[in-house]
Specification:
Blueprint (H helix, E strand, L loop, with lengths): L3 H8 L3 E7 L7 H13 L9 H10 L1 E2 L2 H11 L15 H8 L3 E2 H24 L4 E6 L2 E6 L6 H11 L5 E8 L2 H17 L4
Helix pairs in contact: 2-3, 2-4, 2-6, 4-5
Length: about 200
């Protein structure tokens, strides 16, 4: 069959890029501006509220119901409210809290900010590389696959490093497709073929 490198070169699909966005913190400007926007929509924002007081109010302010939570999400970005469903693993916890009337502005802010950070990362990869395919997402981590045709690994590193701060990235890695990923690709194809046959 050949060496491990031969198998990766022959059956691998280019580069794997794993990235993780920073977890939102109270001092992040996008967290503060999102919390301020939501509190303004709820008429809970006093004049010249300082950061510490703003976050205290956000933590103490409950969102009365699911519809209100979705409306507040739409104020920050209209694609986010679609995630807050019983069937969506990303938005299920927010759905459950909002349905029970125990969701706070602080919790909704954290959810919205993290989702917008991941969305910015996905948009960046799709705009930067035509061949980019989102292979996996787990919370704030994503894994992309891009073609290596005419693309050096150093240029990929350089592009990501140049945009790392603006994309709020905590860490990232670029590598060739691993043997495990090659095997998983074959296994996935075999599983699909098996599903299409009659026993």
């Amino acid at each position: 069959m050949g060496s491990a490198q031969h198998l990766k070169n022959r059956f691998g699909r280019g580069y794997q890029i794993e990235m993780k966005v920073k977890h939102p913190t109270d001092t992040d400007t996008d967290v503060l501006s999102t919390a301020r926007t939501m509190l303004e929509c709820l008429d809970m924002l006093g004049d010249d509220l300082e950061e510490a007081e703003l976050l205290r109010v956000a933590g103490d302010t409950s969102i009365p119901n699911l519809d209100q939570a979705k409306e507040l999400c739409d104020v920050t970005n209209d694609c986010l409210s679609k995630l807050i469903t019983i069937d969506n693993p990303k938005g299920y916890s927010i759905y459950k809290l909002a349905s029970e009337g125990v969701l706070t502005v602080e919790e909704l802010t954290g959810f919205c900010v993290e989702e917008l950070r991941v969305k910015a990362l996905v948009d960046f990869m799709e705009d930067s590389y035509e061949s980019a395919i989102l292979r996996e997402r787990q919370d704030s981590k994503v894994r992309f696959e891009i073609s290596s045709d005419g693309l050096s690994i150093s240029s990929v590193f350089g592009n990501i490093e140049k945009h790392k701060e603006e994309l709020m990235m905590e860490d990232y890695g670029v590598s060739q497709t691993s043997l495990e990923q090659v095997f998983n690709g074959f296994a996935s194809v075999a599983e699909k073929e098996k599903e299409n046959t009659m026993d």
